[in-house]
Amino acid sequence: MRVVVVVAAMLFCMPVFAQGVKLKSVTNSIGMELIEIPAGKFTMGSPEDEKDHQEGEAQVRGTLTKSFGLGKTEVTQGQWKSVMGTEPWVGQNFVQADKDCPATFVSWDDATEFCEKLTAIERKAGKLKADEEYRLPT
């Protein structure tokens, strides 16, 4: 399983699964809950008859060839600090500081570094296989 995390305030859309289906999840060593997104076919986009449908939102079929883990929430300030040892949100306007709030004021490079460091931590702890890694969603 390839592991993927969501950092800071990135938004993502979860596939819609049949009602009542419980997806598997795991919690890593820093408390991140990762939901398994199963391999399979899916449709993304907006139906033409959907209210407020806009041009460029056409539906297309996609296929996930491998399952992967996706962070259930954004990376929290507590998780960020435990891996990076920094608090980039401190001193910024309009930021609520709490270990459970999303990590903010994080650049793409910072987020990539977070993933690399977390991968190293999890491999050292024996929680990740050599072919698994944390990375940003694409």
Describe what you observe in this structure.
18% of the residues lie in helices and 18% in strands. The chain has 2 helices and 6 strands, in the order ββββββαα. It has helices spanning 77-84, 108-124, and strands at residues 2-4, 25-27, 33-37, 40-44, 60-64, 68-71. β2 and β3 form a beta hairpin.
Identify the overall geometry: globular
Global mean pLDDT: 86
What value does the Rg take, in angstroms? 17 Å
- For the biggest β-sheet, the strand order reads 1-6-3-2
The ordered H/E elements are EEEEEEHH
**Which class do the helix and strand fractions yield?**
alpha+beta
Number of strands: 6
Q: How does the major sheet shape up? A: 4 strands, mixed
Output the number of helix runs. 2
What proportion of the residues is helical, as a percent range?
Answer: 10-25%
Strand residues, percent: 15-25%
List the helices and strands and how they pair.
Blueprint: E1 2-4, E2 25-27, E3 33-37, E4 40-44, E5 60-64, E6 68-71, H1 77-84, H2 108-124
Parallel strand pairs: 1-6
Antiparallel strand pairs: 2-3, 3-6, 4-5
What are the main properties of this structure?
about 140 residues; alpha+beta; 4-stranded mixed sheet; two-stranded antiparallel sheet; 2 helices; globular
Produce a short descriptive summary.
The chain has 138 residues and is of the alpha+beta class. It has helices at 77-84, 108-124, and strands spanning 2-4, 25-27, 33-37, 40-44, 60-64, 68-71.
